[in-house]
Specification:
The protein is of the alpha/beta class. It has 2 domains: about 5-135, Rossmann fold (3-Layer(aba) Sandwich), CATH 3.40.50.720; about 140-280 and about 285-320, Dihydrodipicolinate Reductase, domain 2 (2-Layer Sandwich), CATH 3.30.360. The chain is built from 10 helices and 16 strands. The strands form 3 sheets. Strands 8-11-12-7-13-14-15-16 form an 8-stranded mixed β-sheet. A 6-stranded parallel β-sheet has the order 3-2-1-4-5-6, with helices on both faces. A two-stranded antiparallel sheet has the order 9-10. A hairpin with a 2-residue loop joins strand 13 and strand 14 (about 275-280). The relative contact order is 0.16. Bound molecules: nicotinamide-adenine-dinucleotide.
């Protein structure tokens, strides 16, 4: 058997998402028939010691305490960026300068200007980019888009979307990169997911208005201290949106939503039916055809199974369920295909820039005085 060409991966950051990327690169070749064989070549983290430790734990050949070394290393083909948001731009720019393909976690960046710079640089470099909006890889989301496009629920009238989690609901959760004004806030952090989802399902968004709230005004400056510092970003943002099609809707980004662990959820209502999804039950899509009245009123549950690609790559039987990490494996498979020359399904930097435009426009509207008082 001839050996496949290698794709040497450099990973920056080995936290929650770094481990998820490493798992995906390790397992993808056993699940998908790919033209390139990914190799876990180099890992960068905050210091040499941390990088050595994490490289050994995640199966990387080499390590460095400085991401600049990784980006400049001539053996690296692809740089995967899972460092805190405010570091995305300098790392990505260094990788692009060295001509590497780039796989960057969401949000691409946290300002419009930064996302524009990164997208322009990527276009000039002519390499493949992908941004980690992994929830779009779910076979149930793909099915939902196909059902909408096929007119199964008629003309879409409205979208009610929400990304709500509880990881900042406790006022004693300390500051982190997520509350860094240069890299954080609920709208940028998780609002970007539901916005990318809305665009994937229903197309471009043309108008937005918003309101945001900082629910917990101070937080401990770090874990284990009682000293507190003000919170300068939003905990929750609510927006009214309109799509280019004329459909209207709402978007909520909320990381202080008690009881909600992963409610990346939406409801699409059409003139002849409706669809409902929540990531908390990611192997199910609910559909209602027609008004849904009578003695069988309500929604019918569609269960994920081998007839929903690429579920069958993981399992031959319905009801066994894909998980969060599987979405990353699917994303990495699509990325590797794109690097080998197949069409890039995205979201690439250009699409992430479109998401950032919406995030930035909502944020700007949240700052403007409201004149709708009764
Ligand atoms: N796609 C998703 O579903 C999803 C989920 C969570 C987080 N994210 C994104 O992934 C990124 C990382 O989030 P996380 O939850 O993994 O954070 P994390 O805090 O768990 O991990 C961050 C990692 O980056 C490392 N790091 C920090 N500064 C660094 C530096 N200067 N050089 C090299 N490494 C450095 C840290 O040591 C750590 O290993 C963020 O951009 C976040 O928005 C995406």
């Amino acid at each position: 058997m001839t050996e496949k060409p290698k794709l040497r991966v450099g990973l920056v950051g080995a936290g929650f998402m770094g481990r998820c990327h490493a798992n995906a690169f390790r397992s993808v070749s056993g699940l998908f028939d790919l033209p390139l064989d990914p190799v876990a070549e180099m890992l960068a983290d905050v210091t040499d010691d941390v990088a050595v430790h994490n490289a050994a734990a995640l199966g990387f050949n080499r390590s460095t305490g400085d991401w600049r070394n990784l980006c400049a290393d001539p053996t690296i083909d692809l740089v995967a960026v899972t460092a805190p948001n405010a570091l995305h731009e300098p790392i990505v720019m260094a990788a692009l300068k060295a001509g590497k393909h780039v796989y960057c976690e969401k949000p691409l960046s946290t300002t419009l200007e930064s996302a524009q710079r990164m997208t322009a640089a990527a276009q000039a470099a002519g390499i493949v980019t992908m941004v980690g909006f992994n929830f779009l890889r779910n076979p149930m989301i793909r099915l939902a888009r196909e059902l909408v496009e096929a007119g199964e629920i008629g003309e879409v009238v409205s979208f009610r979307g929400r990304h709500a989690e509880n990881y900042m609901a406790d006022p004693d959760v300390p500051h982190s990169f997520r509350t860094d004004p240069d890299g954080g806030g609920a709208l940028a952090d998780i609002g970007s997911h539901i916005i990318s989802m809305a665009r994937y399902l229903l197309g471009p968004i043309s108008h937005v208005t918003g309101q945001s709230r900082t629910i917990h005004k101070t937080r401990p400056i770090s874990a284990g201290t009682t000293e507190r510092a003000p919170v300068l970003v939003d905990d929750a943002t609510f927006a009214l949106i309109e799509f280019e099609t004329g459909a209207v809707g709402t978007i909520e980004a909320n990381w202080a939503a008690s009881g909600r662990t992963m409610d990346l959820s939406w409801e699409i209502t059409g003139t002849r039916g409706a669809l409902v999804f929540s990531q908390e039950r990611m192997n199910e899509l609910l559909i209602c055809k027609g008004p849904g009245g009578g003695h069988t009123s309500g929604f019918t549950k569609i269960e994920a199974g081998p007839s929903h690609p690429p579920y069958a790559n993981f399992c031959p039987a319905a009801g066994h369920h894909l998980g969060f990490n599987d979405l990353k494996v699917i994303e990495v498979a699509q990325l590797i295909d794109a690097i080998a020359g197949k069409q890039n399904p995205g979201p690439d930097f250009q699409e992430a820039l479109e998401v950032q435009k919406i995030v930035s426009r909502i944020a700007l509207d949240c700052q403007s005085p409201k004149t709708r008082a009764l």
